[in-house]
Amino acid sequence: MKREKKDKNFLHRPHYPGGPDAMKAFVRKHLKYPSEALDAKVEGVVQLRVTINDKGKVIKTEVVHSIGYGCDEEAERIVKMMVFEVPRNRGVKVKFHKKMNIHFKIPVSKETKKMVSGIQYNYKTTEPEKKQPDKPKSYVYTINVNR
User: Of 25, 42, 135, 147, whose CB has the highest number of CB atoms within 10 Å?
Assistant: First the structure.
């Protein structure tokens, strides 16, 4: 009589529904670049240690690697919004710890200045996010008038 082989991992780890690509899309959608970081032109990676309960909710976040200027608080805000799928773990209620990286990169924009009749115009062109290759590109223009 053969023995039944047990699963290599006793406890199953939580995962984000849709996988890593869905998690990145969630972060991109909800990330609001802090104005302090934009003014100081700060870019980098905030590394967090996240505690996930048996229901899949994030109950605690701790910043492991900080870049400051409001980016740490924004990274914690986004991670606390996430809900993970936790497979059944043989009736055991377990808290899981996971390290996550949230990348902050200044959005690409082109700014040009034009002087007409003593009025200075600032044109700011921002490229849209790359969502679907079959859609034509559209640009957003922001005009500031300084007198």
Answer: 42
